[in-house]
Amino acid sequence: DTEVTQTPKHLVMGMTNKKSLKCEQHMGHRAMYWYKQKAKKPPELMFVYSYEKLSINESVPSRFSPECPNSSLLNLHLHALQPEDSALYLCASSHADDEQFFGPGTRLTVL
Amino acid sequence: DQQVKQNSPSLSVQEGRISILNCDYTNSMFDYFLWYKKYPAEGPTFLISISSIKDKNEDGRFTVFLNKSAKHLSLHIVPSQPGDSAVYFCAASMNTGFQKLVFGTGTRLLVSP
After folding, report:
1. Smallest Cα–Cα separation from A73: which of A49, A38, A89?
2. How many whole angstroms separate alpha carbon B37 and alpha carbon B25?
3. Comparing C-alpha atoms, which of B4, B19, B1, B3 is closest to residue B108?
4. Are A77 and A89 a contacting pair, CB within 8 Å?
5. Which residues of chain A have a CB within 8 Å of the CB of B45?
6. Burial class for B31, CB neighbours closer than 10 Å (0-12, 13-18, 19+)
7. Each residue's pLDDT tens digit in chain A (111 positions)?
8. pLDDT given at position B10
9. Do B98 and A42 touch (CB under 8 A)?
10. Who wins on pLDDT, B101 or B86?
11. Cβ of residue B53 closer than 8 Å to a chain A Cβ
């Protein structure tokens, strides 16, 4: 299994909703990442988990809350988002310092 | 402050010819560089990488060149195929035990038959 899966593919939510994005990989990777990509912009790193511990938080607002329940799963909990948070959210995983494998992303729209 | 830049937003090439995509970086601490290809509504797909101890890496039709003194890398695709049409991102990282990738702004490549 050489892929990273993400659910849902699309998500529409209101500013008062709570929702979660999910990411899963079964490649034995011990580093997992969340990126945000706005249209016509490069992916921007949000969080890095290394061995299930949060290693990097790139000054992301607290309305985004990551969680790594085990080595194969990564969640991103969303609460009280703003319309400007609408974007493609990408999950990736890697062995320590090897190339990252990306999932297909979740297209999030905040109304 | 854009640490990794791709100054050409788009590039058009005929099938069979060479595509050359360029990338410049400013942070001399970067020691690992990667190229990703991205189709619309999909995640980036890894293409090829190069460590700062090398100046060239080749994989099939794809070759990456690194000029550390100029802080410049390029991706050569030979021969180009219509299926190569996509957005190409270069990315750079410092070895911290995991990759903290900094992506360039992307170049849209269009290969016409």
Report:
1. A49
2. 19
3. B19
4. no
5. 102
6. middle
7. 668 999 999 999 999 899 999 999 999 999 999 999 998 889 999 999 999 999 888 889 999 999 999 999 999 999 999 999 999 999 999 987 678 999 999 999 999
8. 97
9. no
10. B86
11. no
Q: Where are the beta strands (DSSP E) in A14-86?
A: 18-25, 31-37, 44-50, 53-57, 64-70, 73-79
How distant is the Cα of B26 from the closest Cα of chain A, in angstroms?
17
Contact call for B97 and A94, based on CB within 8 A: no
Helix (H, G, I), strand (E, B) or coil at B97: coil
What residues of A are in contact with residue B49 (Cβ under 8 Å)?
99
d(CA B39, CA B26) in angstroms, rounded, equals 27
Determine whether A10 is exposed, middle or buried from the number of CB atoms within 10 Å of its CB (0-12, 13-18, 19+). exposed
* Binding-face residues of A in 50-109 toward B, CB within 8 A: 50, 55-56, 90, 92, 94, 96-105, 107
Residues in contact with B43: Cβ distance below 8 Å, sequence separation at least 6, in sequence order: A4, A6, A90, A92, A102, A103, A104, A105
One-letter amino acid for residue B61 of the chain: R
CB B13 within 8 A of CB B80: yes
Strands A53-57 and B4-5, bridge-based pairing: unpaired
Residues paired with A13 in a beta bridge? A110
